[in-house]
User: What shape does this take?
Amino acid sequence: MGTSGKGLAMGQYIVSRLLGLVFVLFVVSVVAFLLMHAVPGGPFAPDERGRMPEATRMAQMEKYGLDQPLHIQYVKYMWNALQLDFGVPFQSPTETVTSLIARAWPVTLKIGIPTIILSYTLGTILGVVAAMRQNSWVDYVVSFMATLGLVVPNFVVALWLILFFSVYLGWLEPGGWGKPQHYIMPIVAYSLTPMALVARYTRSAILEVLRSDHVRTARAKGLAEKKVMLWHVGRNAMIPFVTILLPEIPNILTGSIFIEAAFRIPGLGRFFVTSTQTRDYPMILALVLLIAVLWGVTYIITDILYTILDPRIRLGGRSNS
Amino acid sequence: MAITTTSSLPNAEARLGVQEPRSAMHYALRRFRRQRLAMVGLVIVTFLLILGFGAPLLAPTDYREASLMDANRFPGGEFPLGTDTIGHDFLTRVMFGIRTSLMVGFAAVAVACLVGIPLGMAAGLRGGWTDFAVMRIIEIMTAFPGLLFAIFLVTVIGSGIGNIIFVIGVTSWLTLARLMRAQLLTLREQDYVSAARSMGATDLNIAVRHLLPNAVAPVIVAITLAIPTAIFAEAGLSYLGIGINEPTPSLGKMVSDSAPYIRIYWHLGLFPTLAIALIMLGFSFVGDGLRDALDPRQN
Amino acid sequence: MTRQPALKRHIDTMPPRDAAFFRQQFSRRDALRAGSAVGAGFAAAGVFGALAPTAVVGRSSLQDGGLPEDAAPPENQVLRVASDPTIARVLDFYEQVYERPGLADIFSMPLVRLTKNFEIVPGAASEWSGNDDGTVWTFTLKQGLMWSDGNEVTANDYVRTFQYAADPEHAWDFAWFWSGNILNFTEAFAGDVPVEEIGVRMGANDYEVVFETVAPAPYLPAKLLYSQPLSAAALDEYGPLYNTNPDTHVSSGPFKLEEWVRDQQIVYTRNEAYTGDMDVALQRIIVKMASPATLFTLYEADQIDYMEGPAPAELQIMEADPDLAAQLYQGVGDFACLYFFFDVTTAPFDDILVRQAFSHVIDRDAMQQQIWGRQAVAAPSFLAPGFPASDTEGLGDVQAFDPELGRELLAEAGYPDGEGFPDLTLTFRGGGTPLEEATVQAYVAMLNEHLSINADIQTMDRQSFYDDMSSILFGWVSYGMDFFDPSNMLGVWQSGGRHPWSNEEFDALVEEGSTSLAEADERIAIFQNAERILVEDVPAVWAYFVTPIQFVKPYLIGPALEPDNNDIAAVHWPGFATTGHALEELYVSADAPTGRE
Assistant: This one.
C-alpha cells in the first residue's frame, strides 16, 4: 500500500472514529441526564426547618426549567450546548458554566501538565534502569518504591508534605495559588502515583520486548547492541505504554479533588463532587461531556499511535491471520 | 476521572495477552517460584488472607466492642496497635478492615467477572452486531466519569458494603470484557477452532471447551491486578464518606477518620495505610509474577 | 397614619410587667458549668434606657477618627480569616442564608444590633415602639446613612428587602423565619398574594418602617437582628446579585467589596462613603477560601489571623503549649444542640419505652472526657445553659445515664437483651465535624454494649437528608438558635415541623409563650414546662451543646476578646457581621507583623 493510500485510510479512520465519538457523547449525555433526575432533591438550598411550601417548590422548579417533561428539558439543554451555551451553574450563579470551567480548568491543567511531564520522564527512566538491571537490587528497589507510590493515597502524601515543608520547616506556604512556590508540593504529591505506574509498565514492557522474537532476530543479524535497543525495543515498548499510560493522562488532567482541597488550589477537581451534592445539573452535564470528549480523543490518539508503532496491527480491528 | 485504571485500545488488545496455548502448568509454577518478588507477594497475600478471614477467630475483641474510657491509647501493652478515638482495639479494627477490603475486592471483581467475561466472550466469538453493541457500551461507560457515576449510584441506592460491591463491580468489568474479547478475537482464528466448528460444535461448546482454558491465563493476571484496584476504589469512596458503613471497619474510612487526629495520634493513620499498602503490594507482586510466569518466552 | 398609643422604650415610664420584659439581658452565667441559668435568663439592667447612640452599652472604646495607642498604623489594620469555598455563593443574608462565606453581611446595617453581652441596641433604627397588643411595630431610622452610590438609606430599602424575602420566585432559604410572624408573609411566599401586601411598609415618612405581625410578637425587635437591607436602587438596576461583583456593588456599611476571586479570596476594604456610626479600626479584611481541614495549617503558617473549629488533635497541640494556649478562646456560639432523633410514628420507636431505653445508655461523661474536651458540653436537654428558659439541671435526671434501667425498659418493651430488635440504621447527616463522627460512633458502640442492639451508620448527603427528614427512622442532626428566644428553639419541635413528633400540649405551651406579653418569669415558666414535655417524651436523645473554640493571633486585640458579663471571652455570635460589635471591638496591635496578606 502506498503512502497516499495509507494516508487516506488513516483519514477515513479518524473521521469514522470522530463520528463514533459524537455518538458516544450523545449517549453519555442522555445517561447523565437520566441519572441526575433519578436522584431526589433539587438545586435549592436544603431547608433546615423543612418548611418550604409546595407552591414555592413549584415556583423554584419553574424558575430552573425543571417542571417540564424530561425529554423537553434534554432537548433544550442539548440545543444550547451545541451553541456552546451550557447554562449557569447553580453553585455560582454569577458566572456561566463555560466561564467557570474557563477559569478553573486552566488552574488544574497548570498542575496537571507539569505532573505528567515530571512523572512520565522520571518514571520512564526508572523503569528502563530497572529493566536493564533486572533482578538486581536496583530492580527490587525501584519495583518496591514504584508499588509504594501506587499504594499510599495522595491525600496522605499531601498531608505529610505540608506538615514537613510548611509547618516544621516553614520553607513553603501550606497552600494557595498565585506564586511559583505554590506549584511545588502539589505537583510532587500528584506525580508519585503516575510515576510509579509508568515505571512499572515501562519495566515490564522493556523486559518483554527484550526477549521477543524481534530482538532475537535483530541480534542475530548482528546489529550493534545500541541500535537494537533504541530502535526495536523502543518502538515495541511504547505499545503497552500507549495502552495503559496514555489513558492516565485524562485522569490527571481532570484534577484530583484531594490534592486541590489539601493545597487550596482553585481548580476544577472539587466540582466533580460538589456538583452532585448540590444537584447542579448544568455543571454535571458539562463536566460529563468534558470528560467524555477527553477520553474519546485519548482513545483515538491511542489507536492511531498504536498502528504506527506496531506494523502487525491494522486499523479496523481485524485479527492478523 | 475513572476510579479504576482501565486500558483502552478496542482494536489492539491482541498485543496485551496473546500467547500460544500451553498446558505445561508445572513449568509455569516453576517460573513463578523463581520470581522472588512473586514469592514474597504470595507470602504477603497468604498472611493477609489469614489475618483477614481469620479475624473473627484471631482478633482480640469483636469489632463492635469499644470502651470509650480507653480511647486514644498509643500502641503497646493491652492494645498492641493502640485504640482509636472511640476506644476500639485498633488491631481488631485493622484486621477486620483487611477482611472488609478483601471481601470487597474479591466480591467486586467477582461481579466484574460475571458481567465482563461473558460479554467479552460473546463479543469476541460472535463478532458482528454483538461485538459492535458490546464495544459501544464499553466505550460509553469508559467515557463516563467513574467517580461521578459512583456518587450517583450511592446517592440513589445508599451506601453500605453490598451496595459498594455492586458499584465497584459495575464500574470495573470493562477491562475484563475487553481482555476477554481480545483473547477470543485472536484465538478464534486458530485452526482447531475451525476444525471443531466443522465438526458441528456449537459456539458455547467451543467457547467453554477450547477457548476458555487458553484464554484464561492473562485473565487470571488481570483479575489478580483488579483486586487491589477495587480495594483502592473502596478506600477512596469510604474516604469521601460514601463507602462502607460504620461500625464495619474499612481501611479507607480509617485513613479518612484519622486526618483530624494524625498530628498527635499517628498510629490511627499509619496502620490502616500500611495495611492498604501491604494488600496492594502483595497482590501486585503476585500478579506480576503470574504474568511473567505464564509468558512462555521467558527463559 | 396616626401614631398608636405606644409602649415607649423608656424603661422608667413603662408599666412594670412590660418593663421587665424589655430589660432582658440574656445572661449566660453558668454557660460553661453544668448549672442552670434559669433565673439568670433575665435581669434588669437598664440597658434599654438610653436612646442616643453614644450611650449604648458595650460600645467600643475606640474613639471616632483615632486609634488606640497600642494600635498598628492603618496600613497594617488587616484581618485575615478563612472560609469554605463550597458555601461562598453570595454575600447578602437576604439573598441566601446557608451559602454565604464565613465573613459576610457587612454591607448594610440591621435595624437593631447585638452587644457582646447579647443586649439588643439600636442599629440603623434609633428607636422603636410597639402598640398595645404588640402586633404593630414602628421603627424610626437614623437619617443621613448613605449608600455608596449616593442614595440615602430609607425605609423603602427595608420594605423592598422584605418583599424580596417573601418572593416565591426568589425562594429564600430562610423564609420560614418570617412565615407566620409577619402579616401575609406565608401567603405571599406561597404565591397567593402579591408581595406588596406583606406586613412591612413605610410609615409616616421615608424614615419610618412599620411591621405588622400575625399575632402579638414581643420578640420582634430581637428577631430584627436579621434585617440587613439590600439597596432598592441596586435591586432595580442590577438585580439581587449586585453585591457579587465590585462593579455593581453598593454598600452602606463600613466596608465595601474590593475583589472576589472565585475559589481564592474575597477582599473587603473600607467604604469611604460610609456615614454611619460604627467605629472600625480595621481597614482591610481578606477572606481566604480553604477547606476546614486546612485551617489549622494556615493558622500555624501565619496565613490567617483567626480560625474557629479546630480538629481535636489541633486543639490538643494548642493547649499543650503555653504561648499557643493563650490564643485560645471558648464561646457559646449559637447554643447549638446536637442530638439523635427518632421517627416516633414508626416501630420500634413508636414505643416510648424503647426511646427511653435509648436515652439511658448514652454516657455523656465519658464522651465529655474522651471526645468533646473543651469543644462541647453535655446536653441533658434541648436548651443550652445561658439560653433563656434553659434548665439543664432541673431536667438532668430525665435522660440520665443508667444502663441498668435502659435494659429493663427495653425488656419491658418486648426486646429482652436486644432480641428481636430490628436491624437499625442511623442516618448521619453528611459534612459533620470530627466531634459529630466520634460521638455518633461512640453512641452506636454504647447501644451495642448496653442494649445488645446493632446499628449501622449510614451517611446521607445534606440535600437528601433535609429533603425528607421526617421519614428518617433514626438520625442525627443539630439545631442552633436564630434569635434569642425559646420560641425559636422550641419552635423546631412544633407539629408540622421537620420532626414527625407532635404533642398538643407542647404546641399549646409554645404558642402561649411565644405570644405572651406576660412577665419574663411567667414566659420562662411556660417555656420550661414545654421543654419538660419535650425532654420527657424522648423524641430525641440529646448529646451535646457546642462551645466553639476560636484561635486568635496575639496581635488581634480589643474589647471583643475581653470577658463579657458572664466571664466568657470569645468573639461572640454573630461574629464579624454588622449585627454584632466585633468589627468595632477588634484591632491589630502595633507589634503585629507587617505585610500580611
Observations:
- Confidence is low (pLDDT under 50) at residues 1-22 of chain B.
- The first helix of chain B runs from residue 14 to 17.
- The two ends of chain B are 39 Å apart (CA to CA).
